[in-house]
Structures are given as C-alpha cells and as structure tokens.
Amino acid sequence: MNQSKKGLSNWLLLGGVLILAAAPFIFARNAEFAGADDRAAKAVTEVQPGYQPWFQPLMNVPSCEVQTFLFASQAALGAGTLGFLIGLYKGRSEQSKKQNENSD
Burial letters for 26-43: b for 16+ Cβ neighbours within 10 Å, e otherwise? Predict the structure, then answer.
C-alpha cells in the first residue's frame, strides 16, 4: 500500500471515529447521559430503601467535573498501558522473526 492510500485511510478512520463520537449528541439531544453508578444506586434504594453500603468511598470528589476527569485519566492510562504492551509484543515478535530469517 503506498503512502497516499495510507494517509487517506487514516483520515477516513479519524472521520468515522468523530462521527461515531458525535452521533449520540446529535440523535439523542434531550437524553440524559448519566452513569451506571447513579442508576444502580437509585435501583437499590427503590428495592430496599434502608440499604446501607458496606464500604465508604476513599475520597469524596468536590464536583462531577473532577469525577469525570479522574475517570478519563484512568481510561487514558489504561489505554496507554495496553497500547504500550501490544506494541512491545509486536516489536518483539517482529524482532524474533528477523533473527530467525537471518539465521537461516
């Protein structure tokens, strides 16, 4: 595959990702984008109003924005680690293939 086709493919992929990310906000304008934790807590209090959690949070975040930032940071750190490990594995397997080809 030549360089111009790779570049076009990358731009098409980026455009597709942007469309997929924006689609929920366009098609579900008045929807409530709440987290699963809030819905689970509400369901538990509806089923058993006197329920007391077993554990308390380690820290209370001051606002929803901070909570969102911490979640996004955690996701980015996990994705970066996963990407690094996949790249490391791929690099090692390619290096092993080269060594096997050179030893023949």
Answer: eeeeeeeeeeeeeeeeee
Dump pLDDT digits (tens) for 67-83: 889 989 999 999 999 99
Rg of the chain in Å (alpha carbons): 23
Q: Is residue 88 within 8 Å of 80, Cβ to Cβ?
A: no
Written as one letter, the residue type at 21 is A
Whether this prediction's pTM lies above 0.90 is answered by no
Q: Following DSSP, what letter does each residue of the chain receive, concatenated?
A: --HHHHHHHHHHHHHHHHHHHHHHHHHTTT-----HHHHHHHHHHHH-TT---SS--SS--SSHHHHHHHHHHHHHHHHHHHHHHHHHHHHHHHHHHHHHHHH-
